[in-house]
Design brief:
32 helices; mainly alpha; 6 strands
């Protein structure tokens, strides 16, 4: 089994990306700069950021050759009421406590801490700091920023205490703030003070790396981005942000959402403009990570199996991979490249794995979208099920068949379940598989599209064509091994991408029918792969099961069906089979009837409810 944590160990050949970004950062003429390392969930962003951090710093305090590197996980600030101030304060604190820089920047750090305290006052609402502020002022303390102290000095202590503790205290403090804008009063001064601290520290450049920003809630993402904006145009600084751009875009749209009464196309155009303008001003250099190619996936899997199968030889294998990658970045690093570096015993141990990799790398690449994390999770699940085969003492078991079925389970869960239904009534050997494989072999796409439309996509045809063939294979043992996943998918049992969790929440909290339709049209149809839709359906299903009586939750599936979202009727059918029909609101009958006018497939839902339930009776009356 393989760990799913980010690592600076480069099994993907991604060091070239890290080296490119390091080269940019080392060019003093482009500083200050903000770099966005963008990629899908699990694409390898964190590993690249780790490589960059390790290359630029070599001691506990992150300082090397005059470059100070500060590495932050954006998720750490998720629990803070004011993530913006927390991030700023943490950056300043790193300077203030640095073993070689602290004495040089002591005075500047104190000034910056006061500025951050002022920002926190403005952010959190004045009632949270009124009494402490009054106490500090009346006892001669200086914990408040100079601007606030100066304004308070105009009042007698008794009058000031009354204003700070009275019913209109918020308005009093707000009036003081409005006399001078935040941009003039705080932001500009903060930048000047931070620039002063950089100069006093005598470092050549500051590199701040912020990872896992896309795991945060929309509000926290924006707060972190707003904190970064404070450093824009500060000399000698480079910020590197790792995130899934879809999550960042959603956060910006969430913060600057448009009026729901706008037409959908107008709203989408305006949202896109707002998001693009915001990102262009913040990110000077967007760098999008490519998906892995077939050869890169094969190489990656080879190295993963080498890592768990080899002893001391693994170091030599990894070194050879790095050497070859510099000479040929396009080729596959496979068994032939490592054969001379390992022992005969290690060869035997790797043989089965290597043959499996070679035969399935192309469909794994296609089914898992060239995503490193998904590849690793796929292999972890495969290894776990392989162990179950051995523990259960199942004979005549072909592990390449298991792997092939798992690719379908991950990339097209509904078809995986279809094969299960076929084989369960035919002694494990469905005739439909024989027909499908024959049609693909004969390249009869016309008959395939007519009789098996959902199996006619290029990706599924490739899956059918690749070895091993399933004709004549008793599939019962393979589905017994996979029985824990028949109601969901591998991806559903894995760590779910943040953008899908965020999308599910948006759908459940849609607020109105027009907003719900807009979300489905803009973010689901044509935007999600089947595997992503299956994960989304699974997330929504769990919420409906917990709150079956919630009409709003059912409306999400009804809208999916009205919009003819692929797989939505199947998903809703599975859901209805799991819930208490007596808890389903009978008022849904009217919505079902309206949905039927837009999608005749809705009629499949009608006969699923128990005849004694109120919803069934209401449906019968509507019909």
């Amino acid at each position: 089994m393989w760990s799913d944590n980010e690592t600076s160990e480069d099994l993907l050949g991604f060091k070239v990306h890290a080296d490119l970004l390091i080269d940019v950062i080392n060019d003093d003429s482009v500083l200050p700069i903000t770099v966005g390392v963008f990629g899908d969930w699990g694409s390898g962003k964190s590993s690249i950021l780790k490589i960059i951090a390790n290359e630029l710093s070599d001691d506990d305090d992150g300082l090397k050759d005059g470059t100070l590197v500060l590495y932050f996980n954006g998720w750490v600030f998720e629990g803070y009421e004011d993530a913006k101030s927390a991030l700023l304060e943490t950056i300043i604190e790193r300077f203030a406590k640095h073993k070689t820089l602290s004495n040089k920047v002591k005075d500047s750090a104190v000034k910056l801490f006061k500025s951050v305290n002022w920002m926190r006052v403005a952010k959190l609402g004045f009632s949270n700091v009124i009494l402490p502020g009054a106490a500090a002022m009346l006892t001669g303390g200086t914990s408040l920023v100079p601007h606030l102290i100066g304004k308070f000095a105009n009042f007698k202590p008794a009058d000031l205490a009354e204003k700070l503790t009275g019913e209109d205290s918020d308005k009093f403090l707000e009036s003081i703030i409005k006399e001078q804008s935040e941009e003039t009063m705080v932001v500009r001064q903060f930048r000047d003070d931070f620039d002063e601290m950089i100069q006093k520290s005598e470092i050549k450049k500051l590199v701040v790396i912020i990872d896992d920003l896309d795991r945060c809630s929309p509000d926290r993402i924006i707060e972190n981005l707003e904190a970064i904006k404070l450093f824009l145009n500060v000399d000698k600084t480079a910020f590197i942000i790792g995130a899934d751009p879809r999550i960042v875009r959603h956060a910006i749209e969430f913060r600057y959402k448009t009026d729901s009464i706008q037409r959908a196309d107008d709203r989408e155009t305006r949202n896109q403009r707002i998001v693009s303008d915001y990102l262009e001003k913040l990110i000077q250099l967007p760098y999008n990570l490519p998906r892995l190619s077939d050869s890169e996936v094969e190489t990656y899997m080879t190295l993963l199996f080498c890592k768990i199968s080899l002893g001391d030889s693994y170091t030599s294998v990894l070194a050879e991979f790095c050497r070859q990658r510099e000479e040929n970045r396009y080729g596959t690093f496979g068994f032939g490249d490592i054969e001379s570096l390992i022992t005969p015993q290690e060869k035997d141990k790797l043989n089965n794995s290597i043959s499996l990799i070679a035969s399935l790398s192309s469909i794994i690449t296609s089914g898992l979208n060239g995503n490193p994390r998904q590849v690793k999770r796929f292999l972890n699940t495969f290894m776990l099920r392989s162990r179950l085969v051995k523990v259960a003492k199942i004979g005549d078991f072909k592990f390449d068949v298991l792997a092939k079925l798992m690719v379908l389970e991950y990339s097209a869960a509904s078809l995986f379940r279809q094969i299960y239904k076929w084989q369960s009534t035919q002694g494990g050997e469905p005739k439909e598989i024989l027909e499908l494989e024959k049609l693909v072999e004969e390249k009869d796409t016309t008959t395939l599209s007519a009789n098996y439309k959902e199996w006619s996509s290029a990706e599924i045809m490739q899956w059918l064509a690749v070895s091993p063939k399933l004709e004549g294979v008793d599939l019962r043992d393979y589905y017994w091994i996979s029985r824990d996943q028949l109601n969901s998918s591998i991806s559903g049992s894995s760590l779910i991408p943040t953008y899908l969790r965020t999308l599910a929440k948006s759908l459940l909290d849609h607020g109105s029918g027009s907003i719900l339709k807009a979300i489905v049209d803009d973010q689901v149809i044509g935007k999600l792969a089947e595997s992503e839709r299956e994960i989304l359906y699974s997330l929504l299903e769990k919420e409906v099961i917990k709150s079956t009586e919630n009409t709003t939750y059912h409306k999400v599936f009804i809208q999916f069906i009205e919009s003819d979202t692929p797989g939505s009727i199947d998903a809703y059918e599975r859901l209805i089979a799991k819930i208490d029909h007596n808890k389903v609101p009978f008022s849904l009958a009217s919505l079902y009837k309206l949905a039927e006018k837009k999608n005749a497939g809705m009629t499949r839902i009608y006969n699923l409810f128990n005849s004694s339930s109120n919803i069934h009776k209401a449906i019968q009356r509507k019909r």
